[in-house]
Design a protein that fits this description.
Protein name: fructose-bisphosphatase
Radius of gyration: 20 Å
Strand content: 15-25%
Distance between the termini: 51 Å
Strand order of the largest sheet: 4-3-5-6-7-8-9-10
Pathway: Carbohydrate biosynthesis; Calvin cycle
Number of strands: 15
Main location: plastid
Order of helices and strands: EEHHHEEEEHHHEEEEEHEHEHEEH
Enzyme class: hydrolase
Bound molecules: 6-O-phosphono-alpha-D-fructofuranose
Largest sheet: 8 strands, mixed
Shape: globular
EC number: 3.1.3.11
Structural class: alpha+beta
């Protein structure tokens, strides 16, 4: 439904999804899964808001509760075959699914340690289409626990069958950012209606941007080529202006700023963590899909994140993401 307000049409996420379904961009099953995800995000938004308001509440638990909220919404959609969560050791086959059978991977509350300080946090998700082999295996649920892992690993080819990806940022406003493979759209939660309302269409990351977002506390642990890159960003050069450093320490907040203002966010590998910290399936791949759909890039320093073949559910990869010129500059330094 659209609501008239001061002369212009307001498009809610629900009505936007229905328009995409009518246009044949997504099918009814995916529409239902995406609606159930937006419902989970609304619930988590109010949990986070309350946690920030009522100090001392056990925030540590919030990521566990958020995982339950996400899982329950996906299960009750009846269209989700398997869920893989940052909060679950192994993927879970969903009994209640009777069609669609999508594989949904998510980090229900990324950056939750920031909640006590009211710093932005977010939910990140990716939706993969199941393949027949995987569906057949789920039917025969004799070895279900192994099936789920194999399904998620051999189905979740970010580059080929990641159908939709998005995040919900819980900040000064609650912003739902989504791509279904035809550009990137953002919706802001209007507390008056309790609805996500379309605010930006076909978002494009600026081709370059003089903001870099790295945790330089790890500088000594980085390899020399990366140190040279970071040192180069600090050199004022002929323009007389070096890059600016911005680091929130919450992937969703740092990424959203990069999506809108340009620049580069990086979480490199280092001497202590040889694959970096961020997870491929439910952090790096969804964010890279969004970045590419917005005309940017998502790289592990040498290749597209979306070309990486997952080997295990919680696999970590280095991540460099943002403006195409900035990511390509980084890749040249690391070559
Ligand atoms: P560090 C939060 O814990 C998180 O997973 C991301 O949201 C964030 O970008 C990163 O880790 C911050 O890690 O090591 O810089 O504190």
């Amino acid at each position: 439904e659209t609501k008239k307000k001061s002369g212009y049409e307001i498009l809610t996420l629900t009505s936007w999804l229905l328009k995409q379904e009518q246009a044949g961009v997504i099918d009814a099953e995916l529409t239902i899964v995406l609606s159930s995800i937006s419902m989970a995000c609304k619930q988590i938004a109010s949990l986070v808001q309350r946690a920030v308001n009522i100090q001392g509440e056990d925030q540590k638990k919030l990521d566990v509760v958020s995982n339950e909220v996400f899982s329950n919404c996906l299960k009750s959609s009846g269209r989700t075959g398997i869920i893989a969560s940052e909060e679950e050791d192994v993927p879970v086959a969903v009994e209640e699914s009777y069609s669609g059978n999508y594989i949904v991977v998510f980090d229900p509350l990324d950056g939750s340690s920031n909640i006590d300080a009211a710093v932005s946090t977010g939910s990140i998700f990716g939706i993969y289409s199941p393949n027949d082999e995987c569906l057949a295996e789920i039917e025969d649920d004799s070895t279900l626990d192994k099936v789920e892992q194999r399904c998620v690993i051999n189905v979740c080819q970010p580059g080929s069958n990641l159908l939709a990806a998005g995040y919900c940022m819980y900040s000064s406003s609650v912003i739902f950012v989504l791509t279904i493979g035809k550009g990137v759209f953002s919706f802001t939660l209007d507390p008056m209606y309790g609805e996500f309302v379309l605010t930006q269409e076909s978002i494009q990351i600026p081709k370059s941007g003089k903001i870099y977002s790295f945790n330089e506390g790890n500088y000594q642990l980085w390899d020399d080529k990366l140190k040279k890159y970071i040192d180069d960003l600090k050199d004022p050069g002929p323009s007389g202006k070096p890059y600016s450093a911005r680091y929130i320490g919450s992937l969703v907040g740092d990424f959203h700023r990069t999506l809108l203002y340009g620049g580069i966010y990086g979480y490199p590998r280092d001497k202590k963590s040889k694959n970096g910290k961020l997870r491929l399936l439910y952090e790096c791949a969804p964010m890279s899909f969004i970045a590419e759909q917005a005309g940017g890039k998502g790289s592990d320093g040498h290749q597209r994140v979306l070309d990486i073949k997952p080997e295990e559910i919680h696999q970590r990869v280095p991540l460099y993401i943002g403006s195409v010129e900035e990511v390509e500059k980084l890749e040249k330094f690391l070559a």
